[in-house]
Amino acid sequence: MDKPIYVTRSSMPPYEEFIEAIKPLWESRWLTNMGKYHQQLEKELQDYLDVPLISLTVNGHTALELVIQSFGFPEGSEVITTPFTFVSTTHAIVRNHLEPVFCDVKESDGTIDEKKIEELITPKTVAIVPVHVYGNICNIEKIKEIADKYSLKVIYDAAHAFGIKYHNKGIGNYGDAAIFSFHATKVFHTIEGGAVVCKDQDMYSKMYDLKDFGIRNEELTASVGANGKMNEFSAIMGLCNLKYIDEVLNARKKSYELYSQLLSDVPGIRIPKPDVIATRNYAYFPIFVEKKYGKNRDELHRLLAEHNIYSRKYFYPLTADQACFKNRYKNANLKMARQLSNQVIVLPLFEDLQVKQIDSIAKIIKDNSISL
Ligand code: T4K
Predict the structure, then answer these.
(1) What angle do CA 331, 119, 63 make, to 5 degrees?
(2) How far is the C-alpha of 328 from the C-alpha of 6, rounded, in Å?
(3) CATH number of 15-243
(4) pTM above threshold 0.85
């Protein structure tokens, strides 16, 4: 490749449209603190994501950290979660002074293995934080059944699951809470940004306090909150991007299908299959490099880089194995999570990825399989 191809590339609205949309800010000078565009984006996202209420935040991590805080779990309580995720998920638990208890994942699609959750529950367990990793949906029914049986909260990290519908309902409706990430690398973005799905006005008010210092009015600060607000430039970027979301998803779908077609019969290359049937958002294109391929994951990752193709090892190492967490917490048997983490490569996938580029990437992968 003459130019580097990265794992993703932010979608952008037409330049003139964005410039036009931000012009009023020069008049109003209202740049943040729940301005007009923040409010408008909350409304439009409620509709698009088909959820009762949305509280916008400065990023997805803050959404997760604050929504966990909103439940007020006692310090030192245990939270069952997946280690096959971005560090943010585990950080959000630990930064709330809670103990992550890592559960293994499923080979099929990398989501938490619902059959292994129950054995990890102790009297200290208060919640389950599963991740819809790559936009693959967890076994929501089974997780709810377990949570109900032991009176646990379920907080979904739906950072990758923007726009997905499950049983004709927005994915954010499931669990006691769910968060999304609108980071620049996501299917839909606000440059930096995120959101908490709120079930009702009460939860919305709690999130409002948590993201705005607990300030109720000029003279009253009712609780100790953080500063997690989304600014108006980000909200406008979101409003502009939301207009083009169908085009973005269509383009991603085409690329995803082409990759699938070109790579499906390469020996030793496994494309994960979602375990649960839901709509797709084509957020990532992960492959697992198995023994039969002949080269290991790191060798293929290097080989692609030699061709100017920068795939990523999302998610290696497991968060449980990161320097900041290693040997600090109870680990279940994480055999499958370790296997997937050692085999995964996420290939470039973004709106304006070209057919020619996908062909070349697939050809390199195909030509280097020893079995062909
Ligand atoms: N939970 C889960 C499961 C998550 O995956 C994430 C974030 C979160 C929670 C937390 O949400 P946020 O607080 O981030 O909203 C990236 C993203 O920064 C992160 O949002 C994402 N998950 C994670 C999986 O990936 P990096 O360190 O890999 O990004 P970086 O800077 O290497 O960028 C990757 C590629 O994206 C670049 O090679 C080029 C492209 N890119 C990058 C940036 C920054 C763009 O096209 N535009 C850009 O502005 O973490």
Answers:
(1) 65
(2) 34
(3) 3.40.640.10
(4) yes
CATH of 244-367, one of 3.30.530.20, 3.40.50.10540, 3.40.50.300, 3.90.1150.10: 3.90.1150.10
In the DSSP assignment, the letter for residue 134 is G
Pocket test for ligand 1, best of 182, 185, 230 (most atoms within 8 A of CB): 185
* Nearest Cα residue to atom 17 of ligand 1: 185
pLDDT of residue 372: 57
Between CA 215 and CA 180 the distance in angstroms is 24
Residue 331: strand pairing partners: 102
User: Would you state the pLDDT for residue 321?
Assistant: 95
In this predicted structure, what is the pLDDT of residue 315? 97
Q: Is the Cβ atom of 60 under 6 angstroms away from ligand 1?
A: yes
pLDDT at 331: 76
**From ligand 1's centre to the CA of 183, what distance in Å?**
6
Domain ranges of the chain: 15-243, 244-367
Give the chain's residues under pLDDT 50: none
Q: Looking at residue 256, what is its pLDDT?
A: 98
CA-only gyration radius of the chain, Å: 21
Q: Strands 215-217 and 194-198: what pairing?
A: unpaired
Nearest CA to ligand 1 atom 24: 86
Determine whether the shortest distance from the Cβ of 85 to ligand 1 is under 6 A.
yes
